[in-house]
Amino acid sequence: MSETKIIPIFPLDLVLFPNQDLPLRIFEPRYKQMIDDCMLGEKEFGVCLGHDSTTLSNWQAPYDIGTLAKIVDCKDVDSTSGHLFLNVRGRRKFRIIRLISPSLKKIDDYDPFTVEGAKTIEQLHHNDGVEKKMYIQAEIELISEIDESISLNDWENLV
Question: Is the Cβ–Cβ distance between 5 and 43 less than 8 Å?
């Protein structure tokens, strides 16, 4: 079995490929916490396609295959909106071995696009303990990269 590690997971409605650049606007408190943690560490998190019908603590759960995303640029918070702007680059593919639930369950009327929604989640997090992680984490194993080289003998046999 290959080496495993625990990383933050960002379920999105897209697939990030290795070497692909992706601009992101971060506005939800749980993902702001995730980016803060990433900037203090290896600047990596996992991007997975979000599962339409599966949840984890009422949040959208990720599919079990994803791509490590490396933060290559993080702009200061927009003071008027409190949003973070960053660019990430896809690195290696990974497989989720085990999901780690966030500290907070999603509340039924949570709307991440409103100030009230953000304040509600921040207050619940403060009451629960600020050292806990609001975002999904996972134990992952990296998937071996595809060897794109072909020997001269194999090449000659193809033609």
Answer: no
Closest CA to 23 of 102, 83, 110: 83
pLDDT tens-digit map of 111-148:
666 667 667 667 766 666 656 898 999 999 999 876 66
Q: What is the pTM of this model?
A: 0.79
Q: Map residue 149 onto helix, strand or coil.
A: coil
* pLDDT tens by residue, 42-97: 999 999 999 989 988 888 899 999 999 999 998 877 667 778 899 999 999 999 99
- 3-class secondary structure, 71: strand
Rounded to whole angstroms, the Cα distance separating 124 from 105 reads 10
Structure letter (DSSP) for residue 78: -
Q: What are the two backbone dihedrals, phi and then psi, of residue 46, each rounded to the nearest 5 degrees?
A: -100, 135
Give the closest residue to 67 by CA, choosing from 86, 50, 46. 46
Nearest to 87 by CA among 16, 13, 9: 16
Instruction: Check pLDDT > 60 for residue 1.
Output: no
What homologous superfamily does CATH list for 4-158? LON domain-like (2.30.130.40)
